[in-house]
Specification:
With about 400 residues, the chain is α/β, with parallel strands linked by helices. The protein is globular, with a radius of gyration of 22 Å. Helix 1 runs antiparallel to helix 8. Helix 4 links the parallel strand 2 and strand 3. The chain is built from 12 helices and 13 strands. The chain has 2 domains: about 240 residues, 3-Layer(aba) Sandwich (Aspartate Aminotransferase, domain 2), CATH 3.40.640.10; about 130 residues, Aspartate Aminotransferase, domain 1, CATH 3.90.1150. The strands form 3 sheets. An 8-stranded mixed beta sheet has the order 1-9-8-5-4-2-3-12, with helices on both faces. Strands 7-6-10 form a 3-stranded antiparallel beta sheet, with no helix packed on it. The structure holds pyridoxal-5'-phosphate.
Length: about 400
């Protein structure tokens, strides 16, 4: 039987490490330390080693990882925090929950990441509204590290600290430096569909700043002081479960191999996709974790047709993201870099869609997907459509 093509194939991964997972889960059930058990500390040590950060603090989700850092740094009302509009809502949500103002920055059309010149403009716009420019959250969208070499000097000039939203990019590399070490702090997510995912919600924070690490550790457990029932600040309940840590330890063991396979899938797509679709740019020296393989169609009509052709062949696709955050009901009253429209991300949201990408996608499946998008099929459809037009 031919396995159907999955958008992300967690079942295939589970088949690969089933005995290890069973043993790890059984071990937690046997020792019974469900909260902050030994696997949590072990995982934090391994994750920090993996990326080269001095400290890792695991937590309950990628969203909480962002919130914990913003809380630890005392972000509050009157602060401006700069973030791309073309991202998942959690990036801006964590900012808004502190009372600070998210200021939305436009994206680069080639990499989908934050446009440094739009960031400059956003800082000026925030100052014009008497907001205090406090921090920037460059999101490593679809797994590709943002343009930190351009963002860093801008941040320095304006006194901004950097929180990397690496929810999609853990495992990525930026000019020899692993994701987790590129800002003052890095937040990642272990949501099941992320490149390194658990079997529920989970996340982690990376930093080289000891004071920040200790503050986040306190906030993670209700603002604890010397011990649990000593409450010195308002915090959250934001721990990672021991069971999830045990599962992540087993997944981390095969993660380097999975990253290589993700790269292989991306390379094959890039080599085979017809020129009617724009494939993602990866600047030299920058390695994506390939959370998503996102391509750009000519227009929203072209995208609809391509998605329909794939669907008819049993190939699932997704649109990340159909609406930029500055157009969302919950976020449209916040500020943008221009004070109005963000043309690049608005255009991208009408044209992008993501193809299946996971370490268990074989060449035959990739070729099948590509053939649905081949020049011939899509061109012929467009010709017949144009012929039918009045
Ligand atoms: C998934 C994601 C988050 C949130 O992570 P959760 O673990 O789901 O809370 C934040 N930012 C981005 C860019 C994401 O993709």
């Amino acid at each position: 039987m031919i396995r159907s093509i999955q958008f992300t194939d967690l079942a295939a991964q589970q088949d690969r490490i089933r005995p290890q997972l069973d043993t790890a889960i059984a071990r937690v059930l046997a020792h019974g330390a469900y909260i902050m058990g030994p696997e949590v500390a072990e995982l934090e040590k391994r994750l920090a080693e993996f990326c080269g950060a001095a400290y890792c603090v695991t937590c309950s989700s990628g969203t909480d990882a962002l919130s914990l850092v913003l809380m630890a740094k005392g972000i509050h009302a009157g602060d401006a925090v700069f973030a791309p509009s073309f991202t998942f809502a959690a990036t801006a949500e964590a900012v808004a929950l502190t009372g600070a103002t998210p200021v939305f920055v436009d994206s680069l059309p080639g990499t989908f990441n934050m446009d440094p010149s739009s960031l400059e403009q956003a800082v000026a716009t925030a100052k014009g509204r008497r907001l205090h420019p406090a921090a920037v959250i460059p999101v490593d969208l679809f797994g590709l590290p943002a343009d930190y070499n351009s963002i860093l000097p801008i941040a320095k000039t304006h006194g901004l600290w950097i929180l990397c939203d690496a929810a999609q990019s853990f495992g990525g590399i930026y000019h020899g430096q692993k994701v987790g070490t590129l800002g003052l702090a890095t937040a990642t997510s272990f949501f099941p569909a992320k490149p390194l995912g658990c079997y529920g919600d989970g996340g982690a924070i990376f930093t080289d700043d000891k004071a920040l690490c200790e503050m986040v550790q306190s906030l993670r457990v209700h603002g604890k002081g010397a011990e649990k029932y000593d409450n010195v600040r308002i915090g959250l309940n934001a721990r990672l479960d021991t069971l999830q840590a045990a599962i992540l330890l087993e997944k981390l063991a095969i993660f380097p191999d999975e990253l290589k396979t993700r790269q292989r899938v991306a390379d094959r797509y890039a080599a085979q996709l017809p020129p009617t679709f724009v494939v993602p740019q990866t600047p030299s020296g920058v390695h994506s974790a390939w959370a998503q393989y996102t391509i750009i169609a000519d227009s929203d009509r072209h995208r609809t047709e391509a998605q329909a052709a794939l669907k008819a062949a049993g190939v699932p696709t997704m649109v990340y993201y159909p609406k930029p955050l500055h157009r969302q009901t919950a976020y449209k009253h916040f500020l943008t870099a221009t004070g109005g429209a963000l043309p690049i991300c608005e255009n991208l949201s009408r044209r992008v869609f993501s193809l299946p990408l996971h370490p268990y996608l074989d060449d035959a499946a990739i070729d099948r997907i590509v053939s649905c998008l081949s020049d011939k099929t899509t061109r012929q459809k467009r010709i017949s459509r144009d012929a039918a037009a009045p």
